[in-house]
Structures are given as C-alpha cells and as structure tokens.
C-alpha cells in the first residue's frame, strides 16, 4: 500500500510538471555525464559494503566479502521497498540464512551503521540549515533532527545495558506472545538480547567509530554528487555543496514519511527546496530527480531482486 502511495505521488508530480517537458528534457541529457554517474555507482556500493564488513569484523563476525556484498545489496533492495527503511534488519536475517551467523551478533552492526548515517546526514544538513532558515522546511528539518536524536539516545540506553536489553525484548515478547511461533522462541529471544548487548559493547572503540564515520562521510558525499551529476547532465547549474547538504536534509525528512525509499516524498521535498534556492522550474527538478533515481536507487532494486532470487540459503533462521 505504501509503495503504491509513493509511486502515485511521484506520478502526480511528473504530471504536474508536464510529462512531455520532462521527457523532452531527459532526452537532451548529456550521456557522457550519465555514464560517469553509472560508473560511480560501484564506488558507493563498495563504500557501504566495506563499512558493514568492517563493523561485522569488530564484533567477531568474519564473512567472505562476496557473501557480504550479496547480502548487503539484497538487503538494501528490500529495505528501500519498506516504509521508512524499516526493513534494514533483514540483512542480519539474510546473513544468517546464507552464512549461518547469529542474528543477535550481526544486528548491532546494522544499528550502528544507521546511527552513523544519521549523524553524518545531520552534520551535512545543519551545515545547510542557514539556507532554509527563512522557509517552513527549517521547522520540519529541526523536528526530524529531534526525532532521530531521541531514537538514537533510546537505542544507546537500551543496548548499553544487558538488563535493559532483556527488559525490552521481554516487553516485545509479551506483546506478540499470542503468536504460537513466537511463544516457542522465548529461550532464543532471551539469548538474542544478551548477544545484542555484548556485540553492541564492542563498538565503543573510538578507532572503530572513527573509521566507520569516515566511510559514512564519503558515502553521503557520494549520494550528493550523484544528484549533482543528474542536474549537470541536464545542463542545470547548481552548487555541489548546497546539493550535498540539502540531499541529507531531504533524506532525513523523507524517511519519516514512511514511504518506501522516500518515493514521491523525496521528489516533493526536492522540488520544494531546489526551486526556492535555485532559478529552476519544477520540470527541471523533477527530471533531475528521476535521472538521479535511475543512476542509483533503481540499480539497487534491480540487482537486489536478482540476488534474492539466486542466492543459496543454507541455514534456517
């Protein structure tokens, strides 16, 4: 349902912008710049895969790079199709099915990864907040930052204590204990809380967090560059630093709309912000957004779907 809403909103924006004009503008795009964007896609994927494998290693989980890459891309494809990227934990489930690694040991790596992403995006967004200070978007961005900060603090408080981790999983178990399959997993759920706490403690090292944050910085810089290349391919002149900052702000807000991959909501925010900051028409911005999606988002979806269908699942969850 959420996916249908996102696609519907995106279609509405394209119609509003005049489909014939959007197609005409895309037809004039510089193919050389698009080729550069497509060639850069592996760079972003490699940065994300290397970061996750590094975090896994810090918790004592060693997995061949090929398996990590397959699971990561497949998991990201699923996550991008779930509301608010709530499907991120599926990576730990897929890794369990492919390599047999305990979910309680690998899930903290996903949580830490998401926390680092949010931290870097907030830093970029705050850097560009002055550009939005006179618009209503500043209020939405400030609210989004507060929500993410609250969720981050709650996660740290829960996972930093074994007793609090147990208490939380016990509450969740009580909520769903009426489901027979879950009722039979009580012992595994208790061990899951212990494993989560122990694994999370291993990420307290400043060296570990520093290196992972370093990679996160370049990951989100790359995302901004990809959108900037989309504008450039259409002959639209925008400041690359503003694009990087604004894309981070837009992503933070769009995730909270709980539309899969921010479909529709991201495009609406991009139009709302970029037509104010730059002398661009709605047609210009929608065309650039669609091109950016083509060079990044839809590649993950297509390749991820292929990997999900062809991966060998040797273990049960």
Note the main attributes of this structure:
317 residues, mainly alpha, 15 helices
The secondary-structure element order is: HHHHHHHHHHHHHHH
Amino- and carboxy-terminal Cα gap: 27 Å
Mean of the pLDDT scores?
87
Work out the strand percent: under 5%
- Percentage of residues in helical conformation: over 70%
How many DSSP helices? 15
Backbone CA Rg: 20 Å
How would you portray this structure in words?
With 317 residues, the chain is an all-alpha fold. Helix content is 79%, strand content 0%. It contains 15 helices and no strands. Helix 1 (2-17) packs across helix 14 (282-295), helix 3 crosses helix 4 and helix 6 crosses helix 12 (240-255). The protein is globular, with a radius of gyration of 20 Å.
Question: How do you describe this structure in short?
Answer:
With 317 residues, the chain is mainly α. Helices cover 79% and strands 0% of the residues.
List the helices and strands and how they pair.
Blueprint: H1 2-17, H2 19-27, H3 31-58, H4 65-80, H5 90-99, H6 103-132, H7 137-159, H8 162-176, H9 180-183, H10 186-201, H11 206-233, H12 240-255, H13 265-277, H14 282-295, H15 297-310
Helix pairs in contact: 1-14, 2-14, 3-4, 3-6, 3-11, 4-5, 4-15, 5-6, 6-7, 6-10, 6-11, 6-12, 7-12, 8-10, 11-12, 11-14, 12-13, 13-14
